[in-house]
Amino acid sequence: MANQYFIDRDFPAAGEEFSVEGQTRHHIFKVMRAKNGAEFELVFNDGRIGLAEVVNAENGSMRVLKEIHRNTELPIEVTIAVGFPKGDKLDFIVEKATELGAAAVWGAPFDWSVVKWNAEKLAKKRDKLSKIAQGAAEQSKRNFIPSIELFGKLPELTEKFDEFDKVLIAYEESAKKGETTRFVQILAEQPKKLLIIFGPEGGISPREIYKFLEDGAVPVSLGPRILRAETAPLYALSVVSAVTELEK
Ligand code: SAM
Questions:
Q1: Closest C-alpha residue for ligand 1 atom 3
Q2: How many CB atoms sit inside 10 A of residue 97's CB?
Q3: What's the mean pLDDT when you consider all of the chain?
Q4: N or C: which end of the chain has fewer CB within 10 A?
Q5: Is the Cβ atom of 171 under 6 angstroms away from ligand 1?
Q6: Is 100 exposed, middle or buried (0-12, 13-18, 19+ CB in 10 A)?
Q7: pTM above 0.90, yes or no
Q8: Which range of residues forms the domain containing residue 59?
Q9: Residues 99, 211: one domain?
Q10: CATH no. for residue 20?
């Protein structure tokens, strides 16, 4: 199977030649040293995939030979929102959440987040995470690259709740109380757009859970074990895939 790359343009007309730019051009012509006739899978802005060949390696021009009909996206559009975790855990979460089908990965400062990132640091981190998401989306043959948003304040996250059919809070206290049914029950209702929120290492504060519930979010357990901040989103995405993609 040919390597897959994303290209920032719509699917071309039949036979249309186009030039490849940016990170994709660098990968194809510098890293892969592609020659005329070399073939790659290119994913266009609308998620459509074309098997394309190099027409002229000198000027980076290519053309699509045929469309590849493949959709690897989750049936439910899932956005993962995490309280800023320590160190490079967010890099890990973005890479794995991309492989597991997340449509977007958001981050925000929670009361018990140890790290405090200023606007400049957030901008740098967002650029780095977007590159990680693109690489993971290429490797895992996604139709789309998950979008990355890092908020400066928690209200910037809660203001977006009404963009979703359902907002869930992965809440450790629900797990400790033995709650076991709500997450799968809600998936069975087949929401189109789901936001799932996860706390940082220290967890979700009473002030935050009160605000989330007041804004209409639903607390759910991810099972009896208390998972690390970087494990919980991956477990949740795996459950969504198991319930919606694997045959019963
Ligand atoms: N400090 C918290 C404690 O000891 O109770 C644990 C926080 S946990 C490391 C980080 C986040 O992962 C939690 O805030 C929650 O969002 C999620 N999480 C971990 N295990 C979970 C579970 N079994 N059920 C629901 N959410 C869980």
A1: 203
A2: 25
A3: 96
A4: C
A5: yes
A6: buried
A7: yes
A8: 4-68
A9: yes
A10: 2.40.240.20
Amino acid at 240: V
Same domain membership, residue 126 and residue 19 = no
9 and 89: one domain?
Answer: no
Q: Is the CB of 65 under 6 A from ligand 1?
A: no
Ranges assigned E (strand) in the chain: 4-6, 17-19, 39-43, 49-56, 61-68, 77-83, 104-108, 147-150, 166-170, 193-198, 218-220
pLDDT at 1: 67
Q: Considering only CA atoms, which residue is closest to atom 5 of ligand 1?
A: 172
pLDDT digit string, tens, across residues 40-81: 999 999 999 999 999 999 999 999 999 999 999 999 999 999
50 and 134 share a domain?
no
Neighbours of 180 (CB within 10 A): 14
Digit-coded pLDDT (tens) for 85-110:
999 999 999 999 999 999 999 999 99
